[in-house]
Amino acid sequence: EAFVRENRPRTERTGSLGCVGWFIVILSGIFTICLFPITVWFCLKIVQEYERAVIFRLGRITDRKAKGPGIFFILPCTDSFVKVDLRTVSFDIPPQEILTKDSVTVSVDGVVYFRVNDPIASVANVSNADFATRLLAQTTLRNVLGTKNLAEVLSDREGIAHSMQSNLDDATDNWGIKVERVEIKDVKLPVQLQRAMAAEAEAAREARAKVIAAEGEMNASRALKEASLVIAESPSALQLRYLQTLNTIAAEKNSTIIFPLPMDVMSHFMRK
């Protein structure tokens, strides 16, 4: 029984108030009824649509569900409450100097979006859920990127963000926090490494350009070879090519006039 009592979740009610506690509560209720016109202003509280109120009675949580939105009632002197904002909160992860798996130092920053999923757990299980989540996001970023090499950090940002979100969500579940999204904003490399990567990329582009040019020359030579075979098989094709060349020369504005001889006249000499 002692083991179960020690290891149960802290958001559960820890037991009854006891005789003294109930006596104080009843006394506070009688006092409230007697001075109702005055105490009504201290008993009625309002929380907004995006807020919830966790009520404590003599230091104990009165219900497993937070109050709100709207108007709720508390007893003066015995009850107190804490407002919890349920809206999504975003914060920037400061730039972290991280050593990657392949021993490269990079500076990485990011942004985290989270909200309170369980108001009672966020109040009872952690002193400052917002501050604790910020610190945990920094350490999680270091731990996740420490298992990646530089190429993965630069190319797989979505996978890193998803891994960080999963780790943060699991760690903050007991705090009543739901991590909705994690994004990697910027990855800064050392200047020497940037120059080396730029030189490597330029060399790779030049190599691809040379390969493409060589492939183009090879294709052109194959096309010329096929054209020469067609012309050799058909003399009329050579005549048409000759006339096309004359048309091209005549279209240009040249000061030199060329009087070509017909191919029929030249073919007699070419055979000799």
UniProtKB/TrEMBL annotation:
InterPro entries: Band-7_stomatin-like, Band_7, Band_7/SPFH_dom_sf, Band_7/stomatin-like_CS, Stomatin_HflK_fam. This is Band 7 domain-containing protein. Keywords: Membrane, Transmembrane, Transmembrane helix. Pfam families: Band_7 (PF01145). It comes from the Eukaryota. It is found in: Membrane. PROSITE patterns: BAND_7 (PS01270). The keyword RNA-binding does not apply. PANTHER family: BAND 7 PROTEIN-RELATED (PTHR10264), STOMATIN (EPB72)-LIKE 3A (PTHR10264:SF87). Residues 42-201 form the Band domain. Belongs to the band 7/mec-2 family. One of its GO terms (cellular component) is plasma membrane. The chain crosses the membrane at residues 20-44.
